[in-house]
Each structure stands twice: as structure tokens, then as C-alpha cells.
Predict the 3D structure of the following.
Amino acid sequence: MIVERLRPRGYNDVRQVGHYFCKGVLVVMDLTAMTDEEARQLVDFAAGLICARGGDMQRLSPKVFMLVPAEPATPSSTTGIVKKLRPRDYNEVLYVGHYFRQGIPVVMDLTAMTDDEGRQLVDFAAGLICARGGDMERLSPKVFMLVPAGLATGEGDTESA
């Protein structure tokens, strides 16, 4: 599975979202740099993509969305799977490790946890990444994506001229 993180600066950057999604790339859209109106327009555009091509769109935080294409770019046994977990306390940390060890990207939504427990889980995830390889990206203040080694990630930050 190929993952591309995009941070459009305005609605004019919509083509890049469509380009990656239509090629079967999982897209994380970070709309925090956009006005609320432009963000709403881009979410509507993404909903149209999902309707036309199939797949799924999940809200990871108020202005961060994940678009999962129906037919991912790189086939594998875990094709199209991204596990979104919202642990309520540190005892649920084993689920993160379980899916990550299976080669499944994990989105950890720590918004239901206290800051101290959230830091513990991020520390655990950092150890997991260090030992197994891969990458961890902050998608919003309390939402992180863990990508196992061997899965491509991209930094498609869009800069306006």
C-alpha cells in the first residue's frame, strides 16, 4: 500500500488529491492550512471521488481526512487495510502492536485519553517503530499514523507559488 500525505493550501490544489486517489494511493488530507469554506469544498470533492471510484473516507480529526481507495496501488495480503484505533486507556496499547506487527498501517486517535496516557502510548509506538522499522507521523495534535516498514509514504505537501 502506498500512502501520500497532502496538505493543500487552497481549493486549487484539488487535482493532486484526485491524482493520487485515482492511482490507488491512500491519501491523508490535512486541511488545517485551508479556510473552512475551502476545506468543505475539498471534502465535498473527496466525497465525489469516493462515490465515483469506490473506497472510503474517514475523518481523523476536524480537518484531517483519510481517503482509502477501493483498489490500492500495490496488492498485498493487507491491501486496503488501515486500522483506526481510538484507545481509551494505556491497556489498549497491545492492539496497536498487534496490527502494526501484521504489516497494517495504524491510525492512533488519542483524543479520548489524558495527555499523560497519550504520551505513554506515543512512547510505546516510538519503541515499536524503532524495533520493527517504519514511520510515525503526527496527523493532528492527538492523532498519529504508524506505517510499517516496506510500505511507501509520501510527503506531498503542496506549496502555493
